[in-house]
Amino acid sequence: MRPSTLLLAATLALPLATAGALHAETATTVPIEARRSLALTVYQNGLGLVEETRWVPLLPGENRLDLYGISQRIVAPSLTVAAQGVSLRDQAWRPADLTPQRLLESALGGKVRLVHQDPKTGETVTEPAVLLSLAGGPVLRVGDRIEIDPPGRIVLDRLPEGLSPEPRLSLTLDAGDGGPRELGLAYLVDGLSWQADYVAELNPAGDALELTGLLTVSNGTDVAFEKAALTVVAGEVSRQQRAPQPFLAAAPKAMRSEMAATDSLPAPQATGERYLYDTGRKVDLARGETQQLVLFQGLKVAAERRLRFDGLVSAGGGPEEIGPVQPTVLVGFENPKGPDARPLPAGTLRLYETSGGKRLFAGEVAIPRTPAGGKVELPVGEAFDVTGTAKVTALERLSDKAYEVAQEITLASAKDEPVEVELAGQLPRGWKMLQESRPHELESANHILWRVKIPAGGEAKVTYRLRVSR
C-alpha cells in the first residue's frame, strides 16, 4: 500500500475508532437561552440557592458541556447535577480566558505581525514577526533583528480555539445512549441577600400603630436572574468559614431599587426553626439590583409610648452631678397572636408619626426576630421638652465593706400637659433601700424603677438613701 493510501485509510477510520474521545474533547455550548426554569431561595446571610433546568442535546457516551450564565460567585462544591440516565464524571469552573496574556501565550513560537509608526515618516508600518518569549515582556524576531518590548502593537491573524470571553461551568457527563435531556442544576451562590424592612405609622395619641412589612431582596452577584420563582427564608443557617476562591469576583453595589406590586404575600410556612416566604411570583433581578415586595400591610396593633431615664440613678462611685439629660422615647407593641399571626423577621423598622396634620419621621431601629405574641420595644430618639438632673447629697463610708449614699433627682417638663416618665437604674449587689420619697418597683434583683408624673410646665423630685454592703 502506498503511503498516501495508508494515510487516507487511517483518517477515514478515525471517527469510528475514537467517537467517544471526540465527544469528550469537543465541548457543547449550553447558553443561558437553554434555561427552561429558574428558582431562587434567598437567605438573610448573603447566601442564595439557585435551582434551574436547561435543555441539552447529549451524544452517546461521554459529553463535555460548557454552561454559560452561571455566577462567578458560585460555591463550587455545592453543585449537584441531575438528569435521567445521566451521571456526572467531573466538573470545573473555568474563568474567562480570552485575555491579552492568554492570546499572546497561544502565539508563542508562531508568526505574528508588529504594527508600529515609522519615527521618520510617521506612517503606519506592518512587519511580519515571530513571538519568541513573554518572560518580562514580549520578545520578537523582526526580519534580521530582535525586538524587546517594541513600541506598537502585536497583531494575531486568528483567534485560538478554546478561549472564551465569559466564565463557564464545564461538566463531563456520561449520557449512556444519548439524546436530548432536561438537565437539573442546584448550587449555592454568595451575593444574594434579603432583609425585612418595616414602616410603622403611630397615631397622634401614641396608643396604636399601623405596620407594613417589606421584603427587600438584593442581587449582589455578577449575573442577572430572569423570571425566577422567588422564596426567602427567615432564620439563621450555619455556614463554615471557607477560604476565598480565586475566581470569585467582588459583587457590585445595588444600583437601583424597585417597589413591586403592593399585594401582601401569603403567610409564611414554618419549616423546622425557620420560616419560608414563598412570594408566588417570578421576578427579574438585574445585576446589582434591589427590589422590594410587600410582606404584609395595614396590620393594626396597640402601642405604648413611654419616656425613660437610664443613668441618673446610681449607688455612688460616679460623678456627684449628672445632667441635664433627656429621656429616651420608647414605643412598644406586641406582635399579635391569632389565626392571622405573622412572625416578624429581623430587620429595620422606621417609625412615622403625625403632628398638626403633617407626617414626620420619628426614627429607625433594628428589631430582632419576633414570634407571634412577642414584644417589640423601639428606642426612637430623645424627648425634647423633658429633662433630668441628679446630684449626690450624702456619701458615708461605714467600713471597708459598706457605705451609704443619698441622691436627689429632679425631673422637669416644659410640656403643656402632665407627663409620666420612668426613672430606672442598676444597683450593685448587696444594696438595701433605707429611705425614699416614693416607692420603687423591681424590674429585676438589681434593677429598680420609679414611675413619676411631672406636672405641666413643672418638676418632680425623687430622693433616696441606700446602703451597699459587700
UniProtKB/TrEMBL annotation:
Pfam families reported for this sequence: DUF4139
PANTHER family, per the entry: DUF4139 DOMAIN-CONTAINING PROTEIN
Source organism per UniProt: Tistlia consotensis USBA 355
Transmembrane intervals: none
Top-rank taxon: Bacteria
Name of the protein in its database record: DUF4139 domain-containing protein
Keyword Transmembrane helix: no
UniProt keyword terms in alphabetical order: Signal
Domain DUF4139: from-to ranges: 184-468
Signal sequence annotation: 1-24
